[in-house]
Amino acid sequence: MKKKNIWSMITDAGLKKTKIRMNIIDLLEKSNRLLSAQDIYNNFYEKDDSMNLSTVYRTLEKLVEAKIINKIHLEQETQILYEFNHDEHHHFLICKSCNKITPIYGCPLHDYEKELMKETGFMITSHKIEFYGYCIDCQKNM
Question: What domain range includes position 130?
Fold first, then answer.
C-alpha cells in the first residue's frame, strides 16, 4: 500500500495524521501474520527508542475504532492480535504445536446465517470460527 493511501485512510476516518498511525497501518498491511501490540512495539523500538508501548496500545485502539485494522481474540492466545482490515471475512487455522495462525477465506456460513435468522428471528451480526489442529510442518515432526 502506498503512503498516500494510508494517509487518506487516516483522514477519511477523521483521525489526525501522525507518523505512528501511518507506520502501524503500513506494518500490519505488509505483515503476513497477526501481530500483537508487543510485536508492533518491538518493531518500532529497534528504529525509534523514544516510542512507548502505551502509545502503541492507544493508537491500535483508535485504528480499530476507525475500522482500519481488526482486533483478533483467539481462544488459546494470551495476547490480543491485530491485522490490517482487508474488508474480507475470514476465519483461522491454528496449529496447536507451533501456534502458527493461518487465515482462511471463503466462508460457507453466510447462507446458514440467513436461514437461522429467518427461522429464529435472531439478528446475527457476526460469527467467528477457529479450527485447531496441526500444520503440515508439525505433522511431519510427529
Answer: 88-142
